[in-house]
């Protein structure tokens, strides 16, 4: 077999995969390159290397771990342009968005490097002294999906390392390249075995999750796969953090100016061609402004420039992979019978997994497009007359990742936001993430939280020392 351009990182060595797999550019359907495909034996080697590296890394002073995380951030920043181009090629998103993701990755890493895990004294008197310590867990399995391969990695790797854990990192099969490029950087900066990178063809997530030497699985992906991760982790009572699917509702109140709000609503739903866990996935609009809002959104959808993310001016790229492309097309076909498509609904006659941004009106709850997670560039707009009823409909979902309320009267919006059942509710915005704000889902959208101090704690074991005086 010819030497592979991209390599796995196992035990501090960059190695070929035992086999290879094609990586396809979703904008052209051309093969970008062959990526290594790790075998289960290589997965086991990666876990063994992480296990062997754990005691020394856990003993390394936190200041030194901080320095390593900052050095990774600096190295990514120094190659930000190359990372961004590669990200656009493998993921499809427009180059400016890819650049934003890469620089966001750097910023998230630097944020985590500032955190601390001080010992908390819970009680201290002549009778006793009680201390709460945060200890690393061991080897972390970090599993990332294909919509934001870099920044979602940065939700996991820096806090896991700061807390003193070692890792086996696995990107999604269709977007392995930026993570493999990162492996080259990690080899130079991180002690051997502390971070290992493996790539698979959707076959190593299950053995990674079930591996007896993995102490925690930090997973971002679909709800169906998240449930499998929990099942795989249950036997050994591993810790899990699950960031899963969503069906975020936006509720627009009657005092909103449709012309003013439509661009922000459009962006909330269509960013990354709708392939965002916290994209707005259904929009409830008051009947008094419904027609106008639908018309404004349809206009924006018609005007949007879709194309190869490397071309200047592209606003929306393709769907990331054929499976997702077929799924979204299927949902649009179904919506033809349950609503009125007033923009999009078509696939341009060109190569690549493109779907025109699609607005569907006169559609109700109980239809597939409203009830399921579309994860693509199609937005159902639903009419309501009573705001409390809209909240009840928003809440009547097995998902609870995010949601938003839009209003001029922010007191009214706040009162409704308080009644919505999801991990994050935004008011007059949607999908804002910040590394210092904890993020997690309710119901079937997840277990636990990432980001912020809470996100760091999830990579630790609470340990109490209770001493008699
Ligand atoms: P997916 O669940 O198919 O895959 C995610 C990852 O899990 C991939 O790396 C995959 O190889 C791996 N995997 C596959 N089978 C596995 C198994 N049995 N055990 C362990 N890992 C396994 O998800 P996807 O299609 O890549 O991503 C889209 C989904 O992710 C959407 O539902 C979206 O909402 C969700 N998502 C959620 C968040 C969040 O933070 N809540 C963020 C991004 C995406």
Q: What is the correct CATH architecture of the largest domain?
A: 3-Layer(aba) Sandwich
- Alpha-carbon Rg, integer: 23 Å
Task: Work out the helix count.
Answer: 15
Mean pLDDT: 98
Question: How many strands appear in the DSSP assignment?
Answer: 22
Global geometry: globular
List unreliable stretches of 5+ residues.
Answer: none
Looking at CATH, the homologous superfamily of the largest domain is Aldehyde Dehydrogenase, Chain A, domain 1
Helicity, as a percent range: 25-40%
The name of the CATH topology of the largest domain is Aldehyde Dehydrogenase, Chain A, domain 1
Give the names of the bound compounds: nicotinamide-adenine-dinucleotide
- Quote the distance from N terminus to C terminus: 67 Å
Major sheet summary line:
7 strands, mixed
Protein name: Aldehyde dehydrogenase
GO molecular function: aldehyde dehydrogenase (NAD+) activity
Family: Belongs to the aldehyde dehydrogenase family.
Keywords: Oxidoreductase
């Amino acid at each position: 077999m010819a030497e592979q351009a991209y390599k796995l990182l196992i035990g501090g060595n960059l190695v070929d995969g035992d086999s290879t797999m094609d990586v396809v550019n979703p904008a052209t359907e051309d093969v970008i390159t062959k990526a290594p495909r790790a075998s289960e034996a290589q997965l086991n080697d990666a876990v063994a290397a992480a296990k062997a590296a754990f005691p020394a890394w856990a003993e390394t002073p936190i200041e030194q771990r901080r320095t390593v995380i900052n050095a990774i951030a600096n190295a990514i920043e120094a190659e930000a342009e190359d990372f961004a181009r590669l990200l656009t090629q493998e993921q499809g998103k427009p180059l400016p968005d890819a650049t934003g993701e890469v620089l966001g990755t750097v910023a998230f890493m630097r944020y985590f490097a500032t955190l601390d895990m001080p010992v908390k004294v819970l009680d201290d008197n002549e009778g006793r002294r009680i201390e709460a310590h945060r200890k690393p867990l061991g080897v972390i399995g970090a599993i990332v999906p294909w919509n934001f391969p870099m920044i979602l990695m940065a939700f996991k790797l820096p806090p896991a390392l700061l807390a003193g854990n070692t890792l086996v990192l696995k990107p999604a099969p269709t977007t392995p390249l930026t993570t493999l490029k990162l492996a080259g950087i990690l080899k130079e900066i991180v002690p051997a075995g502390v971070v290992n990178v493996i790539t698979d063809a959707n076959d190593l997530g299950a053995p990674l999750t079930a591996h007896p030497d993995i102490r925690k699985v930090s997973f971002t992906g679909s709800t169906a796969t998240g449930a499998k991760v929990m099942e795989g982790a249950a036997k050994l009572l591993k810790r899990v953090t699950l960031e899963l699917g969503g069906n975020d509702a936006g509720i627009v109140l009657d005092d909103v100016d449709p012309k003013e709000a439509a661009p922000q609503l459009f962006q909330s739903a269509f960013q990354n061609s709708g392939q965002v866990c916290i994209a707005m996935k259904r929009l409830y609009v008051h009947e008094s402004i419904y027609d106008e809002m639908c018309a404004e959104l349809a206009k924006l959808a018609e005007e949007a420039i879709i194309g190869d993310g490397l071309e200047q001016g592209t606003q929306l790229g393709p769907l990331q992979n054929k499976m997702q492309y077929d799924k979204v097309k299927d949902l649009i076909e179904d919506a033809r019978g349950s609503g009125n498509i007033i923009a999009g609904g078509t696939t341009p006659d060109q190569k690549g997994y493109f779907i025109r941004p699609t607005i569907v009106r006169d559609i109700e709850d109980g239809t597939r497009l409203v009830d399921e997670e579309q994860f693509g560039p199609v937005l159902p707009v639903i009419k309501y007359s009573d705001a409390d009823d809209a909240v009840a409909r928003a809440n009547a979902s097995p998902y609870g990742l995010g949601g938003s309320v839009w209003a001029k009267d922010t007191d009214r919006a706040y009162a409704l936001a308080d009644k919505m059942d999801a991990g994050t509710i935004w008011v007059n915005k949607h999908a804002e993430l910040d590394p210092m704000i904890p993020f997690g889902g309710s119901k079937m959208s997840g277990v636990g939280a990432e980001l912020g101090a809470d996100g760091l704690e999830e990579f630790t074991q609470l340990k109490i020392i209770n001493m008699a005086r």
